[in-house]
Every structure is written in C-alpha cells, then in structure tokens.
Amino acid sequence: MSRLGWLKQIWRVMSLVVGLALWQMLLCAQAMASDGERHSELHQLPAMAKTPLISVSNDYPPFYSPQMSEWGVVYHLVEAVFEHAGYPLSHEFYPFIRAQTLIKRELADLIIGVWYRPEREQWIDFSDPLLSVSIRLYKRSDSKIVFRDIKDLKPYLIGIGRGYANPVAFGQANLNTEAASSDAVNLRKLLAGRVDLVLICEDVARYLIERPGSEYNGKLEPVGDPLSVELFHIGVAKHLPNARQILADFNQSLAELHRSGELTKILASHGFEHNAYWQQKSQSSQ
C-alpha cells in the first residue's frame, strides 16, 4: 500500500477513536447528571469531530508549494477555510497526473487548485472560486515570435503541463504541443530551445523567472495577450459519501471568512490582495 493509502487509514482510525472517546464522554455525563440537570449539561459537551480529510495537489508556486510560506496563498486559504469549518486537513504534493489518479482511486479526498472543466465533474465536485489567474504564452527574449490569433501559433512547438486544463480555444486549435511534468521543466526546455513557446500561468512564470538566482531572469518573456482567465477551486471527490456536505461547509466558511475580512488578510500576506476575482467580488457585494 502507498504512503498516502496508509496515511488515509491512520486518519480514519484516529477519527473513529476520537468519535468513540466523545461518545464515552456523553455516556459519562448522562450517568453523572441528575434528571433535572442532564439536558443542559449534555448541550455543553463538544460537538462530534468532523472526518479528517486528505488533500493532494501538484507543486505549483506561488499558489501551493512546500517552498512557500504557509505553503502558498491558495493552500493557506483552503487550510483556513477548513479549519473554520471544523475539518482536520492533511496534505501531500504530487505531479498533477498522480494527484488526479489518487482521487480517482479513492486514496485521497480532495484536490487543491483545479480549474473547472465539464469532464472533471465525473470524479469531483467543484467549490466556489478561490482565486483568478491569467494564462499566457512565454518565449525566449531573443525570439522573434509574435502572434495575434491562435492560428498564428501553428508553426511552433508549444510546451504544456501534463494533465493541465488548457484554454478551450487553445485546445481546439490542434496545435503542436509537448507535455512536461511541471512548469519548471517546461521553462528549462524553453531556455534550452527544445520548445518554441510555453503555455503557463503568468504568476507562476513570474515567480520562477524572477526569484533570486533564477537562470531565466532576463532570458524569457511573455508574448501576446493572455489566452484565458482561470479560477482555482478545490475538487471534492465524488466517492465520499458526505461530499456534498463537505462542499457546502467549505463554501459557507469561505463566504464567512470573506465577510469577516480574514480572507483579505490572508491574500495580503501573500501579495494577492489585488486579485481580480476578489476585487470584483467585493465590489459586487457593496
């Protein structure tokens, strides 16, 4: 059994032990309370603990990554929302294809950072949005490539992420693409001239290119306008018997953290206080 499989079993056993302990507390309280006091004392006991959840994602800085403070802005949001909703959460990082497979094989409960595509509804239910991002193409700075329309990209080999959800128009254009396991791998291939362009989230590209000691700094740059704006969600596995309840609790807690201002504090702590999705959300609620 895989490490994640053992971890999931351990979490389930812990949840059962906690549940039994709380049940014993209830029985003890009933035995000790007098008839006139029993009802009020039982209502002072803690609520039954919610099922611990195992989440997975790829390593996708600056949004979710063990390299980042609080594991990145999106993970930080997800963790805070589940804590507010009362769900213990554990997390593992994998390549994106592996993370999807773990959900489909019922070895994990939710995946963090997915973009909505209808075909993904076969195996996950989507939460309300967490953050918006722009998707665009990058080229080498010494490249003469320009484009105004998708069809202008036909002559070029374009690096994409394996298993990623690409912009719809991009996917329908039947372009010449080559998949890699991560955006970092794609940028290395771009720098080495093994691909002509890379399709990438702009924030991820900027993080990888501009971080201290980066080999890409001054050598790679965006080309053309963004091809799409995508929204991050969590995806709750449909195999969970309480998937709908988990999703409802998550969405409710996300809205409550937004109203309280806590969500804005988390965004600001990672430099995302001006994210377009949440700015629009705040303006529409005024």
From TrEMBL:
Keyword Signal: yes
InterPro entries linked to this entry: Solute-binding_3/MltF_N
Domain of life: Bacteria
Keyword tags: Signal
Pfam annotation, one family: SBP_bac_3
Keyword Signal attributed: yes
Domain (Solute-binding protein family 3/N-terminal) ranges: 51-274
Gene3D superfamilies per UniProt: Periplasmic binding protein-like II
Family: Belongs to the bacterial solute-binding protein 3 family.
PANTHER family named in the record: ABC TRANSPORTER SUBSTRATE-BINDING PROTEIN (PTHR35936:SF25), MEMBRANE-BOUND LYTIC MUREIN TRANSGLYCOSYLASE F (PTHR35936)
Protein name per Swiss-Prot or TrEMBL: Extracellular solute-binding protein, family 3
Lineage: Bacteria, Pseudomonadati, Pseudomonadota, Gammaproteobacteria, Alteromonadales
